[in-house]
Write a structure and sequence with these properties.
Elements (H helix, E strand, L loop, with lengths): L8 E4 L5 H11 L3 E6 L13 E3 L2 E2 H6 L3 E5 L5 H12 L3 E4 L5 H4 L4 H4 L7 E6 L14 H7 L2 H4 L15 H24 L3 E6 L1 H6 L4 H8 L16 E5 L5 E5 L3 H10 L5 H4 L3 H6 L1 H12 L4 H10 L4 E3 L3 H6 L1 H5 L3 E5 L5 E5 L24 H8 L4 H9 L4
Parallel strand pairs: 1-2, 1-6, 2-5, 6-7, 7-8
Antiparallel strand pairs: 3-4, 9-10, 10-11, 12-13
């Protein structure tokens, strides 16, 4: 079955997670992604996280899926010349170095645009290409903190926490980078002109903080940490069942709360707490009532009652729970691929689903650094094997 991005060529000059994830998403839907690694050492993601073997992590095998690995020393003029030649035939180039780095290497936008005026250049950095913080380094934890999310995460009497995993900002920046690339490609189709897609790691966090910014701008109100509850609706929290499992329940309007009250066997609660304002005013009392009810039964029983009443709910799932969940299985959210090191490798499937041109995972991340040097340099650029060996001997590839 054809994929939507078949024929698209993407150069992945990035490292770690954000911009590489942008390229991974494009590769899942058909783009040919050429991953550029450091000669010899390879990409740092190969060594980040849990090792599948020495020098090769599970993270690399999953997030570099569908990519072809080449090596190139971007700090050397010969390496820069090779990248420019590859750029001439590329549609998208992604990088996540500190602003100014690509320019010092002669690979900035002003250097690459003359080579390929149709190029879309995705630039993901800690704080974006402009502004007083532009040259600061940063990772996901810094982005969650600077973007306002960490301040809201945790309990009021405890320090702010990084929500979930520090890589959430990286993944969101990568997703928005891919979205930006597709928008820019649409513009390119109409005008013939490429452009830069500029994303700061902290910006997706800022963009997704619902009403926090407009409310502060209008009223000066600063939202504070309230634990696992939700600022503007209640009951909308995590509750512990008798068997120790945690459940999420979300009632965002009066109708949903009426259903919950009925499921609890206490329909009079809907009259006692008739509006969201009334429920917010007595947040602690209402959360305690819901917790007392949930705590009287095992999780499966509570979920069954809530499902029957059409109350939004679900288990707070661990990795073990996800592997055993029938819905996750039916949706093929976790897929298995042959592990190049032997056996099978589990990974999250392709998101989103397309009915006519679905994405797919064809290969895991390349095991060997520069596994596709000959295919790309000789096949795409026309170098001879002797020329490629000479470049390798000089540390260029």
């Amino acid at each position: 079955m054809p994929r939507a991005l078949d024929g698209l060529v993407v150069l992945d000059l990035a490292t770690f997670v954000a911009a590489p994830f942008c390229c991974t998403l494009l590769g899942e839907f058909g783009a040919e992604v050429i991953k550029v690694e450091q000669p010899g050492r390879g990409d740092d993601l190969r060594r980040l996280g849990t090792p599948a073997r020495e020098g090769l992590s599970y993270w690399w095998l999953v997030e570099s899926r569908n990519k072809k690995s080449i090596t190139c020393n971007l700090r050397e003029p010969e390496g820069q010349a090779l990248i420019k030649r590859l750029t001439a035939g590329a549609d998208v180039l992604a990088e996540n170095f500190r602003p100014g780095t690509m320019e010092r290497w002669g690979l900035g936008w002003d250097d690459l645009r003359p080579v390929n005026p149709r190029l879309v250049m995705v630039r993901i950095s800690a704080f974006g290409q402009t502004g007083p913080y532009r040259e600061r380094p940063g990772f996901g934890r810094i982005a969650a903190a600077m973007g306002g999310l960490s301040y809201l995460s945790g309990y009021p009497d405890r320090p702010p926490v990084t929500p979930g995993t520090p890589t959430i900002p990286d993944y969101l920046a990568g997703a928005l980078g891919a979205f930006g690339a597709l928008v820019a490609l649409q513009h390119q189709q109409r005008t013939g002109e490429g452009q830069v897609v500029d994303v700061g790691l902290y910006e997706p966090m800022l963009r997704m903080l619902d009403e926090l910014i407009p409310v502060h701008g209008a009223t000066g109100y600063v939202r504070e940490r309230i634990g696992s509850g939700t600022e503007y609706v209640v009951p909308h929290n995590h509750y512990r069942a008798r068997d120790g499992r945690w459940l999420a329940i979300a009632c965002t309007n009066d109708r949903m709360f009426e259903r919950l009250a009925t499921a609890m066997g206490r329909p009079a609660l809907a009259r006692e707490f008739p509006t969201m304002a009334a429920r917010l005013e007595r947040r602690a009392e209402l959360d305690a009532l819901v917790q007392a009810w949930v705590g009287e039964a095992d999780a499966a029983d509570v979920l069954a009652r809530l499902d029957a009443a059409e109350v939004p709910c679900g288990p707070v799932a661990s990795a073990r729970d996800l592997f055993g969940d029938p819905h996750v299985k039916a949706r093929e959210n976790i897929v298995e691929m042959p592990n190049p090191l032997g056996g099978l490798l589990s990974m999250v499937g392709v998101v989103p689903r397309l009915t006519a041109s679905p994405g797919r995972v064809e290969t895991t991340g390349p095991v060997a650094v520069g596994a596709h040097n000959e295919e790309i340099y000789c096949g795409r650029l026309g170098l001879s094997r002797d020329e490629l060996r000479a470049l390798a001997g000089r540390g260029i590839v």
